[in-house]
Amino acid sequence: MSPPGNAPPAGAGAFTLVAAATLVLAALASFPLAGCADEARDRIVLWHHYNGDERQALESVARDIAERKDFDIELVAIPYENFADQITNAIPNGNGPDLFVFAHDRLGDWVEAGLVEPIEFFVDPQLAGRYAYDPLASMAYGSSLYGLPLSVKSTALFYRTDLVDEPPATTEELVAWARAGASDDGPRYALAYDTTDLYNHAAWLHGYGGSVFAEGELTVASDAASRAIEFVQRLADEGIAPRAVRSEMVATLFSEGEAAMALSGPWFIGDIADGTPWDVAMLPVVAETGERAAPFLGTEGVWMSAWSEHESEAFAVMEALAGDESAAVRAREARQIVPNTAVYDKEDIGDDPLLSTFRQQLEHAVPMPGTPAMRAVWTPYARALEASIERGGEARAALADAERTIRGHLQHESDR
Fold it and tell me: What's the CA gap between 321 and 309, in Å, rounded?
């Protein structure tokens, strides 16, 4: 099976993409790569927020790139929680990086603030053809291409193989399994996840036919969105899923056998306790609609600062980091789901159960909106989920309140 789509995004026009790969580092230090830094050589500064295996993979590929180029690469690790603000503040003041790694959901803000540089001048159709459709499309805003995709992320269904013989194919099977387990002194919960987080809830929202935006219009308070919340309310009312549990507790419930299944992404692997028997499957089909639960698709890319003084060299680093060779390293060493289609022809990568499952799930995922308007959605929607699921409020009323709040914020922004 091939990754989702390969065609350039509609409206891509002259732009296309280039290879793929990933950056990975983390920590709190910066240092040049490739031997001793030469004062006569240009230096490309790259900011990232990686840790663990991703950090080691980034260091490996960046070191290899620096050894083959006529310039140095300096990696700077920035804590994730501060990253977006650091980019926003540093670049206009001339203190920012040449390149940085981050998810595509802030792209609209960065373009409108003049922080990122269009790169379509550097790319051609052959390079663009190396990528799956949606990850490449996520790197575009308006009529320009701004980044190269490194990895893609969504949620899927983790399950304990000592508790679940076969993961549920539908939500009806999920509920039936939970009811049977409850009567048989099974685990405390059938499914654990943060039910008040829109990123997690998006799988049910889309599975019920709902959306946040449709053709540019806000669609938060739809009938489909109400049905999605009502489904989760039923899970909570029956004790199938916790009514209120934050993401950091989900791994504990799963590792201790208090939850048989968990809705999460590939980052969850590092939180599962050693010795826990687990596997991963696609999210189930929503029985009421016949549509598979479809989580948000997030794409992490490498972006060029509009203030970089070394555009050609910076793009050379982008191309190499996002290239097939680097992508293969990241897939093997950091288990990243890379968007490079050719990488999955390598047997050890294409046959990897974790990578192949998440690739399948991406065929049933909805790209996260990258417009500035999306920033106004997260908090009001989370409050609607809290009011409905944690406190038992009426879903339609909670969503109507959320939509009014979001519209008010967007109107305020447009009036400024």
Answer: 19
